[in-house]
Amino acid sequence: MSSINSGTGEEAKGMQVEAKQPGARPSRFGLKVGTQGTLVGLVLLCVLFSLLTPYFLTFNNFLNILDQVTVLGIMSVGMTAVIIIAGIDLSVGSVIALTMMTLGVLTENYGWSFPLAALVGILAGGVSGLVAGGLITFARLPDFIATLALMSVDRGIANLLTDGQQVIGYPDWFTNLSAERHLGFLSITTLLFIVIAIIAAIYLRFRTGGRNLYVIGGSKEVARLAGINVRKATIAVYVASGLLSGIAAITLAARMNASLPSAGEGYELDAIAAVVIGGASLFGGVGTIAGTVIGVLIIGVLRNGLNLMAVSPFFQEVVIGAVVALAVALDTLGKKKE
What we know:
The protein is an all-alpha fold. It is built from 14 helices and four strands. It has helices at 2-19, 35-52, 59-84, 92-108, 114-137, 143-162, 172-179, 188-206, 208-218, 220-225, 230-256, 267-277, 289-308, 313-337; strands spanning 24-26, 32-34, 167-168, 258-259. A hairpin with a 5-residue loop joins strand 1 and strand 2 (32-34). The chain is globular, with a radius of gyration of 20 Å. Residues 1-21 and 23-33 have low confidence and may be disordered.
């Protein structure tokens, strides 16, 4: 019996050691799949668009890219943790709508103070994540089904709150959070994304709770035997994903100066794409915030460059889909190699 426990402990330790270096794995072709390889891809993409259009390589255009990826970036930080534990969250786009409409209803119809309404809207996203985590851990629903159900429920509630009507017009100080630039180039919303990404990166890299997520993604059974509360950690990850989606919704409302029940449609796919492009594995146990940030920038650069070239938005979806397929293919090939 002692030999079994000893072996399990060694296996768990091995997984924790592996989790400390989650950012890169060799692929079948000897390429480094992860943060370094993704960064090279981002640089090459920037060089390509610089050659194709004279409007890309300008300071103002890079500022536009940063502004455009803020919402996706904040969402993707939460999605990174979900994918690290080998989960998926399809509800984040609908949480965007739920939070925005909660903000709009409470301020316009009930006269709540703006900060309090924003806080309640963000908490609504956290509640959605809590329900998703509960369905996955207690009801034993597959994460795909649980979050797919929440995607429909949250979107339905968002429409019910205002009978499908949008809320337009917010205070100037709120919209200025995304419009005014500080230090010459950073808006408050962009700075918020940077701060969230740094905090999340530190937590995943240096905190025991963050490193445990990699162990859970590698093997839930090994994580349990190593003394990790898998159920609690899973719920916490989905709650965090919901809260971060709520924060992303507030930043989107600031940019749009409005709340729309249709907001966030398709954002869940972009968030998953950013995380996967950034080197995370859909099999779990691999992923970094740095890689996700680069993945977010790749999607932002792709959209921006193709827009500058007047490429149809429908074709843009084809291009991004192809990039995601390539990233997943490399991930699968690397997994088989291991």
